[in-house]
């Protein structure tokens, strides 16, 4: 069996940036099971997994455009400190949920200057080239329910509300 649409594939993966720092890994955990063809993975990685078989190992370099996108300067905004009502100590690196014109987003404080706070609503991996080392560990047919939902149901079932 090879990876194609409507298959559930399990992969072990390690994600590093160009500096070689590990950003995410399935090492020492269960492999990641995902529904192929349902955009569960970043496009650049999903594309390279097409047709692969159990035991295949691959190194995939994903440019930002096929990963988490380029950084959007419009998502970096200066807002008045009063917007954070109730939070006295605003520090660089803090994350907040915010309602924006792009919907509900997590924004991270990137600069604090007096009464002005600069927040960045980009995905933390936006603009980052992704280096994946992947090993395919399992492939199976997806269930009807998984296909309807567009994601994998593990032993615990759905875990999402629909
Ligand atoms: Zn579901």
Automatic annotation (TrEMBL):
Quote the catalytic activity from the record: [protein]-peptidylproline (omega=180) = [protein]-peptidylproline (omega=0)
Q: Which residues form the PPIase FKBP-type domain?
A: 6-80
Where in or outside the cell it occurs: the entry states:
Cytoplasm
Q: Which GO terms describe its cellular component?
A: cytoplasm
Keyword check for Transcription, yes or no: no
Name the principal localization, coarsely classed: cytoplasm
Q: Which UniProt keywords apply?
A: Chaperone, Cytoplasm, Isomerase, Rotamase
Enzyme Commission number(s): 5.2.1.8
One GO biological process this protein is involved in is: protein refolding
> What GO annotations for molecular function exist for this entry?
peptidyl-prolyl cis-trans isomerase activity
**Protein function:** Also involved in hydrogenase metallocenter assembly, probably by participating in the nickel insertion step. This function in hydrogenase biosynthesis requires chaperone activity and the presence of the metal-binding domain, but not PPIase activity.
Q: Which family does it belong to?
A: Belongs to the FKBP-type PPIase family.
Q: Spell out the protein name for this chain.
A: Peptidyl-prolyl cis-trans isomerase
